[in-house]
TrEMBL record:
It comes from Caerostris extrusa. InterPro entries: FAS1_dom_sf. This is FAS1 domain-containing protein.
Amino acid sequence: MFLYGRYKDFLSADNRNSLYFRILGDEKNKTLTVDGVGVKAAAVQADIGAVDGMVHIIDRLLGMPYQTVYLKLASDPDLR
């Protein structure tokens, strides 16, 4: 799909916001993260095949920020 550590963005279902997917780790121990509207979630179960694409079960509700802008900047290494 895409390279480890690199972002891949997709337009969300509302056609207004983007979702940014990233794979962290190595081949045997990888984690899929998704960032949507400022909320970063990790995949609990990824790559579930569907008729028209892939499904990923994540651990947070996207679009409902739980951090201030300051905490987001302090905790996200890509924004430092």
